[in-house]
């Protein structure tokens, strides 16, 4: 068997950690588990990434493609946002990994940063008016409630609900938070 380069080993560790953190979360994933998946020594995991927490932060990134969100009229934004969120399986894995690791201070800070960059900022960019910031934050909270109910609590009725109906109904709730009071 050929030896891997340092960069190849680092990438194998990163891939293994990503899989395990998404499947098990931060607390239930050990450095030994990551090393075993990457077919390397646990000491190399620490050597390349410093700590398990730093490896977690290196691998868990949540992004949403803003283009489909910017492509719709504001009146359809709520429904489209819910549709985009639920269509991306990567979002679920990263969201759950971050939530499960959020008792660690740096992971909580990453979760707050993702909340701001991924949910609040794209929404606020579409809004106008003096209360645009609070409406964007309320909309992000509404979305967070849906993700929590679907992926943390696994509310059976929501999980098995007809997807287009869920998108339309929850999109309407989100739209209500986005719409200025008149």
Automatic annotation (TrEMBL):
<dbReference type="InterPro" id="IPR001647">
    <property type="entry name" value="HTH_TetR"/>
</dbReference>
<dbReference type="InterPro" id="IPR050109">
    <property type="entry name" value="HTH-type_TetR-like_transc_reg"/>
</dbReference>
<feature type="DNA-binding region" description="H-T-H motif">
    <location>
        <begin position="30"/>
        <end position="49"/>
    </location>
</feature>
<dbReference type="InterPro" id="IPR009057">
    <property type="entry name" value="Homeodomain-like_sf"/>
</dbReference>
<dbReference type="InterPro" id="IPR036271">
    <property type="entry name" value="Tet_transcr_reg_TetR-rel_C_sf"/>
</dbReference>
<protein>
    <submittedName>
        <fullName>AcrR family transcriptional regulator</fullName>
    </submittedName>
</protein>
<feature type="domain" description="HTH tetR-type">
    <location>
        <begin position="7"/>
        <end position="67"/>
    </location>
</feature>
<dbReference type="Pfam" id="PF17920">
    <property type="entry name" value="TetR_C_16"/>
</dbReference>
<dbReference type="GO" id="GO:0000976">
    <property type="term" value="F:transcription cis-regulatory region binding"/>
</dbReference>
<keyword id="KW-0238">DNA-binding</keyword>
<dbReference type="Pfam" id="PF00440">
    <property type="entry name" value="TetR_N"/>
</dbReference>
<dbReference type="InterPro" id="IPR041678">
    <property type="entry name" value="TetR_C_16"/>
</dbReference>
<dbReference type="GO" id="GO:0003700">
    <property type="term" value="F:DNA-binding transcription factor activity"/>
</dbReference>
